Amino acid sequence: MMRVVDYGIGSLSEPCVLLLGYFDGMHVGHRALLARAKEIAEKQNLLVGIMTFYDSKNGGQIYTFSERLYLFEKLGADFAFAARFDEAFRATDGREFLNRIARSLEVRAFVCGTDFTFGKGAACGAEELRAFCSERSVQAEILPLVRLHGEKAAASLAKQYLAGGEVEKLAELLGDKYFIRGEVATEGRHVGRTIGFPTANIHLSSEKYPLKMGVYAVTAEIGGKIYRGIANYGSRPTFGDGRTVLEVYADGYAGDLYGQAITVYFDEFIREIRKFGSAEELSGQLKKDLEKIR
Questions:
Q1: Rounded to whole angstroms, what are the CA distances from 280 to 17, 72, 140, 201, 233?
Q2: Where are the alpha helices (DSSP H) in 45-175?
Q3: Which of 124, 182, 231, 242 could lock onto 248 through a cystine, CB 3.0 to 4.6 A?
Q4: What is the rounded average pLDDT for all residues in the chain?
């Protein structure tokens, strides 16, 4: 598990380069920042840290905190510097925000985008960060924004693609396929078996920004192996279940996944969810869905 240093509480003595921002989705703009941070770290023998938040800043998270830690580690960061976006944090002025970081971490370089703002009312930005770094002989790397098809790479655009189920566009924006990672629940797992499609069910965090409900072609990573599959994201009207659940059938997998963490990557939207007249009718449609992804 990736190391986490708590903003205002924890500390880390090893010198580091720190990325400043939220990094909700680690889109292509964020990945450019991380690439630059890793270049600096390699030259100066530093750790790479990424600032983020435990909770949501603006209406739901693209990736939950645990998913972000998984992604940060996969992308080569060494630790996360995590804060809570609470009233006390929002009331902290920009200077004190930077001072608190300095008390917790031995930062040798900061990396952020030109649109990064901080402090009460988002009153501070690149100019204030450069001034702070100049006083302390700390490197400040402020990189231009990355654009994709004429639009700024941003979490707001990612959420637009999520809401529309446009997972292929989303993958281009994120720099990799969008995923959901979670622990497989026992509830409902026997229903799929009765119609010939045993599924791994993941109950989603209420903090996660919702993907468009539907049936998707997916790729599941289970125990280090990759399986193609189909997934129902949303309700299960045929069985009278209106809750939002991610239900995954991994083609070719045999075994019990209860309690295991799996990662489900979304390849493409196949169809809308609909209520079938019987379990047998649903099974017939799932066979057709499976033929498509094969």
A1: 57, 43, 62, 20, 20
A2: 65-74, 87-90, 94-104, 126-136, 155-164, 167-174
A3: 231
A4: 92
DSSP state of 121: G
* Tokens at 24, concatenated: 């909700």
Record the pTM: 0.92
Pairing of strands 200-203, 139-143: unpaired
Q: Which residues pair with 110 in a beta bridge?
A: 18, 140
Q: Which DSSP symbol is given to 120?
A: G
pLDDT digits (tens, 9 = 90+) for 53-95: 998 876 789 999 999 999 999 999 999 999 999 999 999 999 9
Phi, psi (deg, nearest 5) at residue 71: -70, -45
Question: Which tops the pLDDT comparison, 245 or 67?
Answer: 67
Using CA atoms, how far apart are residues 156 and 78, in angstroms rounded to an integer?
A: 27
